[in-house]
Design goal:
single chain; mainly beta; 349 residues; 27 strands
Length: 349
Amino acid sequence: MMMFRVFLIVCGSTVLCGTTLLHAHAQKTSPHFMITNDRVSNGGAFGASATFDVVGAAELWRGAPRTSPHFRLTQRIDAVDAHIPRRPTLTNDDHYHNKLHLKLALDGTAPDTLFAVAVSSDGWQTQRIVTADGTLGDVDATLRAEDFHTRDFWGGADGMFIRNLDADTPYSARVAALRPHMTQTTFGPASPIVRTEPLFVRMTIAQNISDFFILNTATVARATHTELRVSTNNETGYQTYIRDDGDGLVGGLFDAASGALIPSHDAVLGAGIVGYGAQASSPSAHIDARYDHSDNTVGALHVTNMPLSSNAVSVDNEPTFVNLKVSIDGATDAGHYTDTIYYTATVAL
């Protein structure tokens, strides 16, 4: 049996230096090359052969592998090949208390790139991974393959919201990338810090004093309307309430000097009919059915809070208009009647 020694030098990310003993009719393999033809001829120094050689330098090549008629080098990935993502954009333009808008820097990234996003609220002493439902996972949880998602998942060029964040808290975000058959990148640079707003609901009252002037049995008197304006950054909106002093026990217009009361109740008022109440309207808010009336129909006022208006989303300066109406009959005592109306606004839970 003819035998000879072959000395190969393979240059690239992997260097193979040593001797390879070739036996005729026996296939030779390694993790990085395979000899597919055992037929050899007499060689000289370093095992030169007429039947196989390495074409050019045996370097890693992105694309077609290096080949010869009897020798094949296949691509091996042992370096980071996905580009480290650039700094994402994190914003809170609409003053949210529990979410921030995230937009990845996608320019120059391959279409098959997957992305994972980490968020920190303490200057990257700890971090939390954004999960598949757009909320934050456990503190310092291990990054997993299922945390990487497509650019469409992250909203593409429009971005997406990271939700269920804490109010009045600073946040920053950074991104890692992964491509099929390539290793994961490290996290890229972090976004500037953006703060969620404190949770708030605000209400202003445009008219603080209303006057019925002189009451008589021939008309239904209407006070100057009151205008409420409500703003909230609560995603589930707000609720307003109305109540009055009455006589301390029953809602109504009260004459403290005589102790006389024009009681408030749900009614259709008219000349010569005793009654007092409120009605409300709004171009956008929901008005409670008790007060959603026009003409001379009113809802009763109580010494405890009653729902007045609401909305199920965040709003900015949303109006509610309140009208108070009263009518009396001939048996109503003369006097100076007053009432104090209270409005309350809360976030809707």
